[in-house]
Design brief:
With about 150 residues, this protein is of the alpha/beta class. The protein has 4 helices and 7 strands; from the N terminus they run H-E-E-E-E-H-H-E-E-H-E.
Length: about 150
Amino acid sequence: MPDNDQLMKDTVMKMPVPSFDDPAFTEPPPLQEARVAIVTTAALSRKGGVSNWQLQDFHFETLPSDARDLELGHVSPNFDRSGFHADINVVYPIDRLEELAAESVIGSVASNHYAFAGNQSDSVSELRLDTGPACAAQMLKDEVDVVLLTPV
């Protein structure tokens, strides 16, 4: 019987990784002054919403900062959902982020956060050319300085 973890690792190691000639970078303010947003690949959406995550789904969901009625749309059979069901902060650490803001470790929590599906095309072109820039534009409007990425 094959080792499923090793099969997954072997598959991932064969995937092409895009390279960027001149990546954009802006130095953020100190964390104590920074506005922070979460971007997760857990395919989260609001319960009862219209999202229906599918394989090779490239859209993103906007999650209001006060939303806790979230459901996991991750479709991989290899993903253990028990941690999320026990504590949303496992994949979406919104409560921890709010605690950091209350303790003045960070400046503020963004008004919105964003969820993508981790299953992207091999070229990741949809993310690089379409949904990524669209999500970044929304974060710029919300004056986000720092993004906390939670890969799931």
